[in-house]
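Re: Re: ligand-bound prediction request (bumping)

Still looking for help on this. To restate: I need the protein modeled with magnesium ion bound, output as structure tokens. Inputs repeated here so nobody has to scroll up.
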Amino acid sequence: RPNKNGTRAGVTGPSGLLYGIIGREQAPDEATLAAMADAAYAGGCDLIQLREKNMSTGELLRRAQIVREIAARRGKLFIVNDRLDIAQAAGADGVHLGAEDLPPEVARRMWPGGLIGVTVRDIAQAQAAAAAGADYVGAGPVFPTTSKKLDADPLGVSGLQAICQAVDIPVIAIGGLTADRITGLQQTGCQGVAVISALFQAPVVQEPDRAAQFGTAVAQAARRLK
Ligand code: TZP
Ligand code: MG
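Reply:
Sorry for the wait, this slipped through. Here it is.
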């Protein structure tokens, strides 16, 4: 939903955005997914992306509906990875697309008001995503990560900065990010950070008493981004 500036709610803003990514490796069953998503929002996530590979459409839709409901209750954003159809069916705010998914210009035609994010590994891909109508790019991996098998070398802080300088849309850094490493991104111009393991590594979020503090260090580091 474009606002007056032509940007969309949520990904632009004065403070750094904390973007949590969760899937069945972190939350195997629906009750755990609900508890972890709720804890993540409580702990400072502005947005959660549901990222599931090789899951049946029915199961994915149910999991998307669970996170959608929690996001709505907390007034936070929710995005589905890969699947525009599931994102729309669940009433999500948007979809995140990679090289093997719908091209962003096609997704934009299908979903004019959706929040559309695109994975990029270099400047050329970032510029192409911006030209195709993406609302933000996810740039990475910035650091080595064990959460995804990747053939690309890490961008490093300077590679991330180069991408930030090359596009006008928000850049969300991803890959191997911890609170300390996020603090090291302050000069890059990235708008936010996307995080899997530093947020969702068991057992922290599975202890209800710790939910309130959950993610606080990561969230505080993210807030200090531009
Ligand atoms: N894309 C690039 S790195 C990555 C994805 C999905 C994984 C990030 O996970 P972590 O655990 O925060 O390094
Ligand atoms: Mg994808």
